[in-house]
Amino acid sequence: FLQTPPIGRCCSVFMGVHYWTLWRRQKPRENKPPEELQSNMEGQTGLPPEQGAGPTLACDSVQHWLLPCCTRYPGMHVSRTPRWGDVQHHVDSLASHGILKSKKPMHVQVANTASNNQLLATSLSKSAETLVAPLLNLGMPGCLIEQIREDAQEVGATVAKMLPTAQRLTMKLEVMGEANCSKWHRDNYVARAIITYNGRGTEMLRHDNVNFGELENRGSNSHIVCDGSQIFTAGTGDILFMKGVTFPGDVNGLVHKSPDKRYHANGKLMNRLILKIDVKKLS
Predict the structure, then answer these.
(1) Which strands form 239-243's sheet, in the order they lie side by side?
(2) Which of these, 97, 84, 86, 87, lies nearest to 1 by C-alpha position?
(3) What is the pTM of this model?
(4) Torsional class of 225: left (φ above 0), alpha (ψ -120 to 50), beta (otherwise)
(5) What would you measure as the largest C-alpha separation in the chain, in angstroms?
(6) Is residue 153 within 8 Å of 181, Cβ to Cβ?
(7) Partners of 193 in the β-ladder
(8) Is the CB of residue 233 less than 8 Å from the CB of residue 157?
(9) Cα 34 to chain center, whole Å?
(10) For 209-253, how does the pLDDT look when each residue is reduced to its tens digit (9 = 90+)?
(11) At what angle do helices 117-132 and 142-162 cross, to 10 degrees?
(12) pLDDT, mean of residues 134-147
């Protein structure tokens, strides 16, 4: 029932929002060993002071999330250019048939065996196959299915190594539509890695742009944000790591929310396909 859409991409312009595509225009860092990258980052302390800098640390790969400098940020991200094309039609078709909807996502529990790399890799590989199983034989682009497999394994392994005292990871692949987290908030658990494969990704704020009194007392979104022009958004395909309030360390609790809902010209909702890798608690 899924058909390949015409070549092309849908794009929208949202005023007052800074996109990570702005950061991509900066000269990329060279691919260097972690030791050299760490040395280059030593001068960065706390949150970026620049007016246009976002709340998360830009990294070349998820392996760089393991570097000590990441302790200074409430989150990290890896920017990517999607190579699977416009899959909006496919994702909307999944939603219309009730596949991977938020009430019935595909999720798996992965025991954290970070001390045994081979065992962890085997477990993540099996879990990745379980996650993508609902997408097989439905006409979904093969490159997208393979990307989800790779992301589940690579990001899952990195999160497991980052948090070795976590007993398990919860991996979830779901189609987000009407149900989303539209209020600014911080996650009341350890951490989440999240990837949005179509549409806009998670929105986030620097801590110095948050009225925490309003946030903690469930104030309106407009009262929580001090400067509405300084809202940052993850791009399609970007890998975002968000520290929750129980993440160990002094800097955690990234303030974020789901992007505003978008609609087709005919008024139908544009659904999003999302991979989440969560750590709920540490032992």
Answers:
(1) 57-58, 75-78, 239-243, 191-196, 272-279, 168-176, 106-111
(2) 97
(3) 0.83
(4) beta
(5) 53
(6) no
(7) 241, 277
(8) no
(9) 22
(10) 999 999 999 999 999 999 999 999 999 999 999 999 999 999 999
(11) 140
(12) 94
